[in-house]
Design goal:
235 residues; mainly alpha; Four Helix Bundle (Hemerythrin (Met), subunit A); two-stranded parallel ribbon
Length: 235
């Protein structure tokens, strides 16, 4: 019984820290203090250490010898690779959804975009983000490839942290709504090539903006010179 309780405590600590890191509530470089967590959750060190170890494996926490444990910086090489993978996968779902989606599904996606616009107007970044995910998941469902959205979620942990930095930028949320609308308009017109092009433009914006946000928050990102040299050439 005690073992199950310890495992449950570890899961709770892991879940909460994972969410806090991905949503940027805990920013890169922030200390992860074992003693503070044991007091906060009223648990022993064992479940806290187990949770932290899982976060290290996720690439969200790093342990620096003689320095401590910290929220990991966002690895740009991983972000770039994940964006490339997502672009390829969403091209498949958008093309299929354009051909297979029903009028009812198109209307449901328009309702999602409308809700996203309302959340943008309200400045509710978390609800906006959730609606964003729902829109992309709805495309995968309409394409009859719901598993592809699950695959995208598996490779996008670091991308999510980066995306959270982009949303507060002035005009970013309305721009996303406009881009989603362009994708859906092409889908509704049954123009698969145009829908794919609009989706690629939407996703490529994240790729193109990497250098901008890296310059705004240099301490938040980890750069691999051998992989990111071209990205920052001339900077």
């Amino acid at each position: 019984m005690r073992v199950r309780s310890a495992a449950k405590n570890s899961d709770i600590v892991y879940r909460d820290l994972h969410k806090a890191i991905v949503t940027m509530e805990l920013t890169p470089g922030a200390p992860v203090l074992e003693r503070k967590l044991t007091e906060q959750y009223g648990v022993s060190r064992t479940p806290v250490r187990e949770a932290v170890l899982r976060l290290v494996e996720d690439g969200l926490v790093e342990v620096a010898p003689k320095s401590g444990t910290f929220v990991a910086r966002i690895p740009l090489s991983v972000v770039r690779e994940a964006l490339v993978a997502r672009r390829a996968l969403e091209e498949v779902t958008v093309r299929a959804a354009t051909e297979l989606s029903s009028e009812s599904q198109i209307m449901q996606m328009r309702a999602i975009i409308q809700h996203q616009q309302e959340m943008a107007d309200a400045g509710d970044e978390e609800a906006f983000h959730q609606a964003d995910d729902k829109f992309h998941a709805s495309i995968a469902a309409a394409a009859r490839y719901p598993g592809i959205w699950k695959m995208i979620q598996q490779v996008r942990i670091q991308v999510e942290r980066y995306r959270r930095l982009t949303l507060p930028q002035n005009g970013r949320m309305p721009m996303v709504v406009k881009e989603h609308t362009a994708v859906l308009d092409a889908m509704a017109a049954r123009d698969a090539d145009a829908a794919v092009a609009r989706m690629n433009e939407h996703l490529d914006k994240l790729q193109l903006d990497i250098s901008i946000f890296r310059d705004l928050w240099p301490d938040y990102f980890a750069i691999d010179p051998s992989l990111d040299e071209k990205l920052f050439a001339g900077k």
